[in-house]
Amino acid sequence: MIAAVLQMNSGPDRQANWAQAQDLLAQAAAQGAGLAVLPEHFGLLLPEGQAPPAPETLAGPTLEFLASQARRHRMWLVGGSLAQRGARGRLYNTTTLLDDQGRLRAHYQKIHLFDLGLPGQTALTESGFYSPGRRLVVAETPLGRLGLSICFDLRFPELYRRLRLKGAQVLAAPSAFTAATGREHWELLVRTRALENQCYMLAAAQWGQHAPGRASHGQAMIVDPWGRVLAQCPQGVGLACAEIRPQRVARVRGLLDTMRLARLIPVGWRKGGV
């Protein structure tokens, strides 16, 4: 199956963002994609420090939009992320997985929240609005078993190792990686997470200036289990497509699977008890 990763320049205008996503998904379908990954906060990307104005449930307008696109193009979607309203007033930065009939198959609430600032820059505190998730998610798809993550998770290899231990063959990372750190770290992190777990990585991205004080690096990419970049976006709004082959995962793991040699993995994890 062909997979696509979208690169968007979202902002505070939800309708404009949806129109951009709709156009890119149509392009992905025209290139034969059976699964597409949208970037983090694809539907609404606000200036730093601004609270999400209208958090949604998983039956809200963003999911309705994604379901309609999935049905229209007969395409599985990893729906970027949205501000999900949870129990007891909590908010979560949540990504969703929809099948080609528009049915919600899984959702993942971002575990690692971005609470950092570079020297001389204003610190970003995602936890000022969002609560961290607590559950790892791997779901069956036509590409194989897909592990879900979001953006800042990329800096925490233990999360991806546990997704691999739960059977992941493909990893998805909808992202809005900052321009300042993305130049140095984005490609390195994406390729490393793919290589060390012998998984495909589907890393969608936001790109460019979104609002005063907020800019994203871009470079949405698809990486194979050997760490090779199969496709990536140049600067600007666009998409990248590549074929995902489960047999490639099996072949790479047959050549060099360090998992069976790792000495710090508890026995229960090796047997899938994660």
Structural description of this entry:
- The chain has a single domain, classed as Carbon-nitrogen hydrolase (Nitrilase/N-carbamoyl-D-aminoacid amidohydrolase, 4-Layer Sandwich).
- The longest helix has 19 residues.
- The strands form two sheets. Strands 1, 2, 3, 4, 5, 6, 11, 12 and 15 form a nine-stranded mixed β-sheet that branches. Strands 7-8-9-10-13-14 form a six-stranded mixed β-sheet, with helices on one face.
- Helix content is 26%, strand content 27%.
- The chain is of the alpha/beta class and 274 residues long.
- The mean pLDDT is 93.
CATH architecture level-2 label: 4-Layer Sandwich
Radius of gyration: 17 Å
Number of helices: 6
Q: Name the structural class.
A: alpha/beta
| Low confidence ranges | none
Main β-sheet description: 9 strands, mixed
Q: Find the count of extended strands (DSSP E, 2+ residues).
A: 15
What proportion of the residues is helical, as a percent range? 25-40%
Amount of beta strand: 25-35%
- The CATH class turns out to be Alpha Beta
In CATH terms, what is the fold-level topology?
A: Nitrilase/N-carbamoyl-D-aminoacid amidohydrolase
Mean pLDDT: 93
Q: Let me know the CATH homologous superfamily.
A: Carbon-nitrogen hydrolase
> How do the helices and strands follow one another from N- to C-terminus?
EHEHEEEEEEHEHEEEEEEHH
